[in-house]
Records
---
Amino acid sequence: MSKQSTIFVCRNCGNESSKWFGKCPVCNEWNTCYEEKLNTKLNNKSVQKNEIAPIALNNVKSQDIIRTCTGFEELDRVLGGGLVKGSLTLLRRRTRNSENLP
Ligand SMILES: [Zn+2]
């Protein structure tokens, strides 16, 4: 089964939309919209099976992750041993005004 659909693309920034637009909502340029036809095959054979197969939890190999101690014993414990390079950790300082907040 083959289905043809249309998308509208901004010539300036590449923003894609299912609807035509006179002014691009992303870059705010006027008259940059053009129509592009897509051939979307909705055939099960064309959909590749996941190349990544699930594995049992006991077969998962742990990675050696370098953790940096923060100097706060409790925080390091909560973080699993410290901060991980390249990770993002949100911290919230509790203040007098925030005591009643969730
Ligand atoms: Zn645009």
---
Amino acid sequence: MSPNAYRLAPKVELHLHLEGAIPLDTLWSIVQRHGGDPGVPDRDALVAKLAYRDFAHFIEAWTWMTGFLRTPEDFRVAGAAVAASLLEQGIVYAEASISPSDYAAHGMSVEEIAVAVRTGIDSVPGARISLIVDLVRDPGPERAHATLDSVLGIADDAGIVGVTIGGSEQDHPPGPFAGVYRRARDAGLHLSAHAGEAAGPSSVWSAIRDLGVERIGHGVRSVEDPQLLAYLVEHQIPLEVCPTSNIRTGVVSDLESHPVRQLIAAGARVTISTDDPTFFHCNLTDELRLVSELTGVSGHDLTTAAIAASWLDTRQQADLRRIVDDYWQAADDLPGS
Ligand SMILES: [Zn+2]
């Protein structure tokens, strides 16, 4: 299959932080609008600022960036830029997260942020993005409850379909968030959680047992526990695997040793995403191609897996599936493909 086939293919992404996907030019203009940073004088310096050594350093770079997202207008601009960028890459549907509590210091409410992002997305014809709210581990469960209170008031208007928890997994295990997840589920929201990325199998077990998640964000360290891997296979719990992200944050050393091959060989339900493409210098086209080459699973099948694990309803999934099937059928029929 030619690399071009992946570029043109209709693609679906389930694990994408909207703030981590803001195109560089847009991010640069937002930073400048707020006076810039003397330590980051040009775009090259911005690229360097977004590079890091490990997971903790990545959180530090993320925190620097969030310091410049200060007004609802910033979020409207970011939402529109991300939506345009996804369309341009052939991403026909995405479930993108926002982390509103990271901006409490700027006096913005969850409602203002979510509505601004939705306004931006909806200004781009053809863009199709559902939102997930990251309840964020680091400020603790009480703040997560407050964030959820806000979400419940605007979920329908802002197109919010679910929640996750991101942040410092190694310092904040899932257990204390059980109550807030119960409330989210009772309100009809879908549930995912970052687990098995910066922390090991116990974090994934807790996300399953204490939070009752439907999908696992990352989950790649599940391979360290054969019983957990068997459980994920038996219950077909989808994993939102982001290979380049894991390499850049130091969770794994290189693609060759990435657990995605072991997960797929074991029969786990793997979907592929980019996580924070602006920070990790990656894109979904290349991620799908690399994983396909590594595992032998076709881009078509990886995309189908993402559609099936999405939180679209059955009819919407079938519509998307038809578009994807038609494309790959035609691509397979091309001579030399
Ligand atoms: Zn993530």
